[in-house]
Amino acid sequence: MQSPLTPLQSWLTHHQNNTHTFFCVCGAVVDIEGSVDGFLCPVCGSDDYSDYDEKPQKIWKEFLTLDAVGEDADGFFVDFYAVVPNKEGRELQKRRYLQMILPKENRFAFDKTYLDNKSYSYAIYQGEGRVLQLAKLLEDKACKLLIEHLLRQKPSLEWVRRSELYKSSSFQKQLEILHFFFVTGFRELELFFWNREFFEFSLPNATTQKELLEFVANSTKKGVKKALFTNYLHTMESIKSYNPLVDYLFSRLITNDDHLKKLYALHPLLKKELIRAYNYEAAKEFVEFLLTHYSQKQIVAYFYELTSTSRLNLFLDTVSLLSANPQIYEKAQEAFERPKPKASSTPRYPRRIWK
Ligand SMILES: [Zn+2]
């Protein structure tokens, strides 16, 4: 009996009446009657096999696997197969046990489907008591396979490959970088370090830092654009990432150029945490609410006070409270009273976290 499939490791299966089937890695399939002690493959002489009836084998000496890489309209995928005996142990079958999909969207995360609920518990024995979880091994392998696929199939990513930063990254990071530039079509490495949530906003047809910053600034005035660009460069230099959502919001609500420039110059670490996609709408409503009662100058002063941790948390809590209960605004508008200035004109705040 010759199987059309060749296993990637040899298997021995057992049947009733003390008969067995040996599937050799060389392709030979041999039926054995009686004891299997001292059995050698009649074709290649191998005596190294895994006993299939010991499944589920939590630890396989080597988990050898076939893989298929490809893509469709929605994502890239890697399928992992094993060639294993069927239930009765008389034939081999190709069994897909894990599919990993990387969607073609801004979010970088694998969707994993285990088709055999046992496979996630497999581990690979690496000798000297070391065991590697199969899932981790396969995720690394999927990254490598998809990197090769992207570089082979997408000439538009050739420029990324030449970048020093790309070369010095882990496989996972390399794939994340390639995936990002494939999805966005951007061609400037710095944009990889922008807050990804911003790209989920409906952007104009902008593909460079300059074009995107002009969109953030929302102004034709040279002074405003220059202030934003200067603070952007400072941010990238100091914290190596940029959250455009804060500047985006201020650009749309603060009409006085001088006050707007001061808000652009808020500390980069504060801006990183202040406004995110999840609270953007609520933060916008809150600032609009403040603008109905305070001057733009006072708004600037308010945001500069958020550099203390407790004040920042108060801002974030207020925004999330207002977002959960929008009716509070109506009550707040009716009952609003500007607090009277305190006798002490220099309030003391807790320890500042950023200087
Ligand atoms: Zn053999």
Describe this structure as you would to a colleague:
This protein has 355 residues and is an alpha+beta fold. The chain has three domains: 11-54, no CATH class; 66-173, no CATH class; 188-335, no CATH class. Helices cover 40% and strands 16% of the residues. It has 13 helices and eleven strands. The strands form three sheets. Strands 3-2-1-4 form a four-stranded mixed β-sheet, with no helix packed on it. A four-stranded antiparallel β-sheet has the order 6-7-8-9, covered by helices on one side. The chain has a three-stranded mixed β-sheet with strand order 5-10-11. Helix 5 runs parallel beside helix 7 (244-253), helix 6 (222-239) runs parallel beside helix 8 and helix 8 runs parallel beside helix 11 (296-305). The chain is elongated. It starts with 10 loop residues before the first strand and ends in a 20-residue tail after the last helix. The model has no long low-confidence stretch (mean pLDDT 86). The structure holds zinc ion (ZN). Zinc ion (ZN) binds next to loops.
